[in-house]
DNA sequence: ACACTATCCTGCAGGC
DNA sequence: TGCCTGCAGGATAGTG
């Protein structure tokens, strides 16, 4: 569920409560999410200060005193909620099943931060901070899509010789880390590239990026930045940490809009939906070639 | 190496 | 109303 804009929105919402704060107690209400929790997980967190709350790809990283980092992934349905006696945050009613409240962080400030995850595809683990980059989850991760490393030359190298469709390549976290189904569909529509097109065919023989590929990095960055400004997209689960909804879903041009008129100016096409590797792809066959 | 699938889990929408 | 099927923002292990 949460792609980069949603995870970053969560990070920004949690940072005022977590970063610099001390964890006094952690309630861990089950033994596993996607994976088992680390041994003595709750006990190892108790009493520790969170030095910084960062994001890499779709991971939230809480650097703790004692040189360990709490790594958190929201999977498809994970979310955090802040409540308790916190100045600056309203107390919003529980609108999700408490049965899926799996972890509660009790902060010294009085804030409670609750992790809810119905599908339990999310996970948490503890990694020594200096070993993070070498950790198996992180060492193969691709570039941050909002960083300078993502440009047309990078994409030309990444796509060269690849038979896989553009959609699959953009979803591959080993190339670009942070995109998911929604923003890949939206970015490809914005630059007029068909999600079905083989990656290699978007690169010219001379090795220079094609015009279409040259537009792709900007399309990716723009859609992510617009989504960030909107607090992410709220379809089913995503909420900002203060409980408010993201609203970028109202700005989708193709995602979940099968049958709608293509919003590209002058285009007479209709948004289509196809399955690619078992997942829905939305695109306009008229203006995405 | 690469491409594709099945799979983890729950909730919800749509069809009958 | 209820039962059934399929689908959902992710990522990996396993297959050919």
Descriptive keywords:
Helicase, Ruva Protein, domain 3, 289 residues, DNA-binding, alpha+beta, globular, zinc-finger, 7 helices, damaged DNA binding, four-stranded antiparallel beta sheet, N-terminal domain of MutM-like DNA repair proteins
If you had to describe this structure to a student in words, what would you say it looks like?
It is a single chain. The chain contains seven helices and ten strands. By secondary structure, it is α+β, with helices and mostly antiparallel strands. The chain has two domains: 4-139, N-terminal domain of MutM-like DNA repair proteins, CATH 3.20.190.10; 152-283, Helicase, Ruva Protein, domain 3, CATH 1.10.8. The strands form three sheets. Strands 1-6-7-5 form a four-stranded antiparallel β-sheet. Strands 2-3-4-8 form a four-stranded antiparallel β-sheet, covered by helices on one side. The longest helix has 19 residues, at 211-229. The radius of gyration is 20 Å and the shape is globular. It binds a DNA duplex (16 and 16 nucleotides) through helix 6. InterPro entries: DNA_glyclase_Znf_dom_DNA_BS (IPR015887), FPG_cat (IPR012319), FPG_Glyclase (IPR020629), FPG_N (IPR035937), H2TH_FPG (IPR015886), Ribosomal_uS13-like_H2TH (IPR010979), Znf_DNA_glyclase/AP_lyase (IPR000214), Znf_FPG/IleRS (IPR010663).
